[in-house]
Design brief:
single chain; mainly beta; Lipocalin; 1 helix
């Protein structure tokens, strides 16, 4: 059975950064696969996720880069009643930002 958060999600809003920053290198997103992994990209951040699945949420650690510097942290995402997800992305010993995301669609890529 597929987890309800599996797939790609368009990051719509973040507590610390505006839409221009979120989409700096293309549409910001977070994705979760059915094998315990995933990806995140927003601003100059690009990372891979290691996920732990609960019934309607996912907790993850991530490892990647931020402006070409090594970066890592953790976070979570949870399914909301309206079909969106909310969560938080944290940098180890750094910024912490909440986010809201909606399911990726073909029109999302624009």
């Amino acid at each position: 059975m597929t987890h309800p958060l599996t797939g790609k999600w368009r990051i719509e809003e973040m507590e610390l950064w505006d839409r221009a920053f979120i989409d700096l290198l293309g549409p910001g997103f977070i994705s979760f696969d059915d094998k315990g992994g995933g990806d995140v990209r927003f601003g100059a951040v690009d990372g891979q996720l290691d996920c732990a699945y609960a019934k309607a949420s996912i907790h993850f650690t991530w490892d990647g880069c931020d402006e070409m510097d090594q970066a890592h942290g953790d976070g979570y995402a949870q399914l909301e009643d309206d079909g969106t997800i909310t969560g938080e992305i944290n940098f180890h010993r750094g910024d912490e930002s909440t986010f809201t995301a909606s399911r990726w669609t073909s029109s999302t890529a624009c």
